[in-house]
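Late entry, written up from scratch paper. The run itself happened at the end of the previous shift, but nothing got recorded in the book at the time, so transcribing now.
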Amino acid sequence: MLKVKATGFEELSKSIKKLTGKIKNQTKPYAESKIIMLKDVHQHFKYKQGEDKKWDKLTRVTLLRRRKKGKGAKILQDSGRGRMSITAISGMKFAAIGTNLDYMIEHQEGKGKLPKRDFLWISKGAQNSVEKRFILWNKV
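Output as recorded:
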């Protein structure tokens, strides 16, 4: 996976460190966390939502070009390859989410002529869900 500046994860990481106290093997709560994070990122595609605002709409030129090629008008989902490149991994003491496609990182950060359409961020709802998983595992 490529490294990219994503938001919400640092805050969540600090919170999890406080919650891992009694959990000897943290593999399962991290595995559950990666699923929560992956679902959350996929929701960003569904709602065309960045952390701070909705994604910019496609330009008229882009829409015309796509129609000529017989493709749709979904933002960042021309072929679906980018969205499907987003994967999550986890281990005994970590969970991570990312993509291995350079052009998706360019969209995430808004490089060149591409508008910023950040998708690698975690919502407050997903953060709370991850924290709850660790709280539950602390009680086991």
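The first strand starts at residue 87 and ends at 91.
(Scratch paper discarded after transcription.)
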